[in-house]
Amino acid sequence: MPDQTASRRRLFRHVPACLLALLPLVLLACSSDQYPQTTLHPRADYAREADNIFRVTLIAATVVFVLVEGALLLAMWKFRNRPGAAEPVQTHGNTTLEIVWTIIPAFILAMIAVPTVRTIFKTATKPGPEALQVEVIGHQWWWEFKYPQLGITTAGELKVPAGRTVSLEMTTKDVLHSFWVPAFAGKRDVFPNRYNNLWFKAEVTGNFPAQCVEFCGLQHSKMAYRIISVDSTEFDAWAAGFNSPPPDFSADTTAANAEARAGEAIFKGKGACAGCHSMVPALPLTGPNLHHVGSRSHIAAGTLVNTDENLAGWIKDPQAWKKGVLMIVPPLTDEEIRSVVAYLRANK
Ligand code: CUA
């Protein structure tokens, strides 16, 4: 007997330490700032629908866990071995019990299936023409966004108006990718020659990270993008001004623009950037359209903050940041790179 008491005491001594070890995990779940790609803080109707199912399922699973584990612990305690106890009656099979423990889980699963199936059908619907239409095209390894109603083509950043439903028609130019906007909606795989749809209505404004979630080659992990949700006035102003022509320095002789002018010449000439990237609205080329690249929050498919330093490093040696990236840049001097950065920055 003293033996048993001692070992029990030893066991319970570890309980506070275990709870303490679990605390960081619980706190991690609460902090969405550090983990912006969390799905636990939905910021759109679609994400909220999915989150509701998760929460209902989690609550049901917790209740089941507590009941089952509680019954198990109770049985272990109540029917524990005692010194001199006789061997318990041996049984095999209990039809009533087996029917009950088959029916109860089946009933619980059916209860979870009802909202799940309802949400699957609801989220598979396609919004009407009043929604903002966006065509999403996956490329190795960046995302292209076209707004057919507005005649806008851009890349890396999907600008959306908060409070208005955005209807995405999604496909890919090459291999399979998967579009995931954790704060606003779920995941959708994209396939060549096929269109999948996804929609959401952003509830808040802000700049949110998003990510390709289907392995699509060497740089899959750096095939990110940003969702930039702005209020409707700001969105309308952005859309109205988007297709204004980019700055053209070729005929500009002012001294202040000398660096940008040199950059433009390199962009169109020695750098061969213009072979793949357009600085003009909606001109289709193989690389991401760079109109307004100067004011984007991120470059390199949403993976680098758009600072002059990052932009210069990216142009100097894209392979250093994204091994296997399809962008080929001929060797440029630091001064030439500075000029190209000045030219890109000028296209705000
Ligand atoms: Cu595209 Cu992974």
Describe the overall structure.
- There is one protein chain.
- The protein is 40% helix and 18% strand.
- It has 348 residues and is of the alpha+beta class.
- The strands form 3 sheets. The chain has a 5-stranded mixed β-sheet. Strands 4-10-9-6-7 form a 5-stranded mixed β-sheet, with helices on one face. The chain has a two-stranded antiparallel sheet with strand order 11-12.
- Helix 6 (258-268) crosses helix 9 and helix 7 (308-316) crosses helix 9 (334-346).
- The protein is elongated and about 105 Å long.
- The protein starts with a helix and ends with a helix.
- It binds dinuclear copper ion.
- Dinuclear copper ion binds next to loops.
**Helicity, as a percent range:** 40-55%
Helix count?
9
How would you sum up the major sheet? 5 strands, mixed
Label the structural class: alpha+beta
Bound molecules: dinuclear copper ion
Order of strands in the sheet with most strands: 3-2-1-5-8
Give the integer mean of the pLDDT values. Answer: 90
Shape: elongated
- Our Rg estimate from Cα atoms comes to 29 Å
Give unreliable regions as ranges. none
Distance between the termini: 80 Å
List key phrases describing it.
single chain, 348 residues, alpha+beta, five-stranded mixed beta sheet, 9 helices, elongated, binds dinuclear copper ion
Sequence-ordered SSE layout with sheet pairings:
Blueprint: H1 2-13, H2 15-30, H3 45-78, H4 95-124, E1 132-139, E2 142-147, E3 152-155, E4 157-161, E5 165-172, E6 177-180, E7 187-190, E8 196-201, E9 206-212, E10 224-230, H5 232-242, H6 258-268, E11 298-299, E12 304-305, H7 308-316, H8 318-321, H9 334-346
Parallel strand pairs: 1-5, 4-10
Antiparallel strand pairs: 1-2, 2-3, 5-8, 6-7, 6-9, 9-10, 11-12
Helix pairs in contact: 3-4, 6-9, 7-9
The structure holds dinuclear copper ion.
